Amino acid sequence: MPERILDAPEIRNDYYLNLIDWSSLNYLAVGLGNNVYLWHAESGDILPLVQLEDQEDYIASVSWIKEGSYLAVGTRNGEVQVWDVERRKRLRNMASHTVRVGALSWNSHILSSGSRVGKIHHHDVRIAEHHISTLTGHTQEVCGLTWSPDGRYLASGGNDNLLNIWPNITGNDPECQPLHTFTQHQGAVKAIAWCPWQANILASGGGTSDRFIRLWNVNSGSCLNAVDTHSQVCSIVWSTEYKELVSGHGFSQNQLIIWKYPNFTKVTELKGHQARVLDMCLSPDGTTVCSVAADETIRIWKCFAVDPAKKKKMAIAAQSSVLHHGIR
Length: 328
Description:
Order of helices and strands: EEEEEEEEEEEEEEEEEEEEEEEEEEEEH
Low-confidence stretches: 316-328
Number of helices: 1
Mean pLDDT: 93
Largest sheet: 4 strands, antiparallel
Strand order of the largest sheet: 1-28-27-26
Structural class: mainly beta
Oligomer: single chain
């Protein structure tokens, strides 16, 4: 049973969007229609942050910077906005895309955005001419995008069924090619997540026509393991405490599955959503998985108990971002 259930009215039932993210400062950001709301997990307070002016526009993606004080927001109209959450103020509105931006990922001061036409833009949020390079390895919408924890690699998944691994080269090199292009998935690759304790290991999941989760070693380019989940894979989250990962699914069970790594032994299934899971994220203390689904609910699952001795070590200092004076 979930620990808690929150309402998510007007959540867009769209597989290709990334509408929730949980910050290191314990705020859950949720994109609902043309609004972004913040839920503070400790106090339970709900704060409106963003309301797009154009009624036809909608939130297509949200992503917190690692330090937690800045939120990036991608829109249907192709804007990439950066918000200072402490001051509740928009810092930047970056318009380099012309179509919706459904995927975002931070790597220090570089914000990467993936669009409906398959292009990935790197933005240096510190400078006026923010759009510093473009990656063109997808022919259809980029729906999964995530930098590795050590910042060395960017993984991108698309509706063209491709999973690309890019080097950290943010200069505008028109010849920049992926280090690896993995073609084994037979459906859209939205669910991609880096292993938190082994920097070169990546998990990816395929859409309705694929349904597999695959584990990759991006150093060697090899597929280490694969499991048929018998359902659309919408999202993957790794535990930071245990050698386990969680996948979120669509038809027919709409469940979350906890798997043992690396052999994909099924630990348990978490059921309750009445429609497909759209997205998931992990709490900053590593104990809790949040899922949002097309049933217009957000469910909070206490999946991973943390050893009390480790809690001290994991206490997050609420310090302002290193970029505090850099974004304008």
